[in-house]
């Protein structure tokens, strides 16, 4: 069950729960608080109390609770609103002997919370239960059901009496429970079903506990599950496990089979816990397996190295890549070498979200003519996600059942500066920034990396970044992943204002339309700007010029101008391509070639050369001074030895 069990859970980062009590004047707010704090009937209560703290040992989760009393007066509205915005939960009171205060919940207090955007659990509390008219037979369910239907943020309703101490402790128990074990992430009360994220999390837990992968939890697996996730109200002994399975089977025949409790039965069992008000049981399971209140794995449960230099990137290890190859084969049920959207959805059914349904991933990988994800596209999506968001990548590996040590799934690459000094790199994933003027052909180049046919209809005025990732086959069967990052011309100035912008770039290409003089001029300007930033920041990057649209007639002097620039900067001659005529000139393999030689093809401006020459002169001068100083010290030492011997002989 590697990667599944989170150890002993504590409410991380939470030193207590803050509950704000609000309601109309005279509804019993302050008396309720005093009764809860003193466990006695209150007398001569102040209109508004100072913050009251209930100790941790009063609650089963051992978390202390602070109660904030508020005034309902108009003059205190601003202060009350500030307190409400800081609340973990809100208790709204009405008086059982004053029906008008119930109506005010609906007409003022609940709309007020929505207007303030207070998005926390709300507990409705009827105070002064002892004063209710004995002839009034309306139940709290009948009274509150219409209000709860309208205001879904209401967690529960309860009536109490501070005078007789009836159900006073329960008020704040439910308030704390609503914060520590909230209903909304787990259960859709309107549809009376588990929430999609809750189902995904429980499916993953079921998968991790199903050690023999037979689709059912045997008695032994259920017992081991209990050991790893002890129920808040104690263990279920083997005889009781049989009873639990019997209950599930009676309610849901396919919830149990001859092998044990099925996934359907496992989900039903937790829905039953929630419906019975035992949310803490389901939350205990989820938290033991690393989930937070948003039903995502907690960051402290995902071992991503936090300390990295700006020019260090991360990529998947060979072990993780092999796991993904196996997962691809497992979910490619029709063995056609590609995953349909439905198969991708099934693969990520144990994750809280589908990670590739949004930018920059949704249009970044190779797909078949039918829109299915090829193996290269699948692995490239993972490589891109690991490069851009290692935490998210590792979390999704764990969601889909990565069985190895999560800490072994990612590798921190060596600093690019060190690669340049050693004249080699160990990276398998290279990021290439694509610069160029509008309409130079940047989008067409990205599409060609994804094996997509040329189209004149693509958007040429995009002002947003775009990524394309694919596997590039190398000589000898070696494979590298190339990630092209299109830098929109309108955003260049903003990007280059960041001194560390080039740190993660392995190679930069500058695209120009070979038939357009302005396009070449603009790409050369961008090349010089990037070269200067590299020299100033210390993150110099190998560069290439690409002459796109080679099927068109070049403007006069285009070749001479571009060659002169390349010679001046000390980089390779421009690579001519025509995406339209499918003449790519092996451009992607050549980009990888440049990335694999991080010490070459780094442009050097005149200013950079002068600075380098000056630094060399300084270094030589310092070396000469050091040698001279060493010689002087050595000479002085020899003289002292000579003088000492002369004195001795005389």
Automatic annotation (TrEMBL):
One of the protein's GO biological processes: mitochondrion organization
Keywords: Calcium, GTP-binding, Hydrolase, Membrane, Metal-binding, Mitochondrion, Mitochondrion outer membrane, Nucleotide-binding, Repeat, Transmembrane, Transmembrane helix
Top-rank EC class of the record's enzyme: hydrolase
Domain of life: Eukaryota
Localization terms from the record: Mitochondrion outer membrane
Pfam family membership, one: Ras
Topological category with respect to the lipid bilayer: Single-pass type IV membrane protein
Enzyme Commission no: 3.6.5.-
A Gene Ontology molecular function term of the record: GTPase activity
Domain EF-hand, first and last residues per copy: 197-232, 319-354
UniProt xrefs under SMART domains: RAB (SM00175), RAS (SM00173), RHO (SM00174)
Keyword Ligase applies: no
Domain (Miro) ranges: 14-181, 427-597
PANTHER family: EF-HAND CALCIUM-BINDING DOMAIN-CONTAINING PROTEIN 7
UniProt record similarity statement: Belongs to the mitochondrial Rho GTPase family.
Protein name, as recorded: Mitochondrial Rho GTPase
Species per Swiss-Prot/TrEMBL record: Trema orientale
């Amino acid at each position: 069950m590697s990667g599944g069990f989170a150890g002993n859970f504590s409410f991380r980062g939470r030193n207590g729960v803050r509950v704000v009590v609000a309601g109309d004047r005279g509804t019993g707010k302050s008396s309720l608080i005093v009764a809860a704090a003193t466990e006695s009937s209150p007398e001569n209560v102040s209109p508004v109390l100072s913050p009251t703290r209930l100790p941790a040992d009063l609650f089963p989760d051992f978390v202390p609770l602070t109660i904030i009393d508020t005034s309902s007066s108009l003059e205190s509205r601003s202060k009350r609103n500030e307190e409400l915005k800081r609340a973990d939960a809100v208790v709204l009171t009405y008086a059982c002997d004053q029906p008008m205060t119930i109506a005010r919940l609906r007409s003022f207090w609940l709309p007020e919370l929505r207007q303030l955007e207070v998005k926390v659990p709300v507990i409705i509390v009827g105070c002064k239960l002892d004063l209710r008219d004995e002839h009034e037979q309306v139940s709290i369910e009948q009274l509150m059901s219409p209000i709860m239907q309208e205001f879904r943020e209401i967690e529960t309703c309860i009536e109490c009496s501070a005078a007789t101490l009836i159900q006073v402790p329960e008020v704040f128990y439910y308030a704390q429970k609503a914060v520590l074990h909230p209903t909304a992430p787990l259960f859709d009360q309107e549809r009376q079903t588990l929430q999609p994220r809750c189902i995904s999390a429980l499916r993953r837990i079921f998968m991790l506990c199903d050690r023999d992968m037979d689709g059912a939890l045997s008695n032994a697996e259920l017992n081991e599950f209990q050991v790893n996730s002890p129920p808040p109200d104690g263990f279920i002994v083997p005889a009781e496990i049989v009873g639990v399975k019997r209950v599930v089977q009676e309610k849901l025949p396919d919830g149990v089979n001859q092998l044990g409790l099925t996934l359907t039965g496992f989900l039903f069992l937790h829905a039953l816990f929630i419906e019975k008000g035992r949310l803490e049981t389901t939350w205990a399971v989820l938290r033991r397996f690393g989930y937070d209140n948003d039903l995502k794995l907690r960051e402290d449960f995902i071992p991503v190295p936090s300390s990295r230099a700006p020019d260090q990137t991360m990529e998947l290890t060979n072990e993780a890549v092999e796991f993904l190859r196996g997962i691809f084969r497992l979910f490619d049920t029709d063995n056609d070498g590609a995953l349909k959207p439905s198969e991708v959805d099934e693969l990520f059914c144990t994750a809280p979200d589908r990670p590739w349904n949004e930018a920059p991933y949704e249009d970044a990988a190779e797909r078949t003519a039918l829109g299915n994800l090829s193996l290269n596209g699948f692995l490239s999506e993972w490589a891109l996600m690991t490069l851009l968001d290692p935490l998210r990548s590792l979390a999704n590996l764990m969601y889909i059942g990565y069985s190895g040590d999560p800490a072994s799934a990612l590798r921190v690459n060596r600093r690019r500066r060190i690669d340049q000094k050693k004249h080699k790199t160990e990276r398998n994933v290279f990021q290439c920034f694509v610069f160029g003027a509008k309409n130079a052909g940047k989008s067409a180049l990205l599409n060609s990396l994804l094996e997509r046919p040329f189209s004149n209809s693509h958007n040429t005025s995009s002002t947003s970044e775009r990524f394309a990732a694919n596997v590039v086959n190398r000589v000898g069967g070696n494979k590298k992943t190339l990630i092209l990052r299109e830098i929109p011309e309108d955003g260049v100035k903003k990007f280059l204002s960041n001194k560390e912008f080039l740190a993660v770039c392995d190679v930069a290409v500058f695209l120009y339309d070979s038939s357009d003089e302005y396009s070449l001029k603009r790409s050369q300007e961008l090349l010089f700007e990037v070269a200067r930033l590299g020299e100033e920041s210390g993150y110099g990057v190998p560069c290439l010029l690409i002459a796109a649209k080679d099927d068109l007639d070049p403007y006069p002097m285009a070749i001479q101008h571009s060659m002169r620039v390349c010679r001046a900067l000390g980089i390779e001659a421009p690579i001519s391509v025509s995406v339209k005529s499918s003449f790519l000139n092996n451009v992607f393999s050549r980009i990888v070639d440049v990335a694999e030689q991080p010490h070459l093809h780094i442009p050097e401006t005149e200013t950079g050369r002068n600075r380098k020459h000056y630094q060399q002169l300084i270094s030589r001068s310092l070396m000469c001074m050091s040698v001279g100083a060493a010689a002087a010290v050595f000479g002085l030492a020899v003289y002292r030895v000579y003088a000492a011997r002369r004195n001795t002989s005389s």
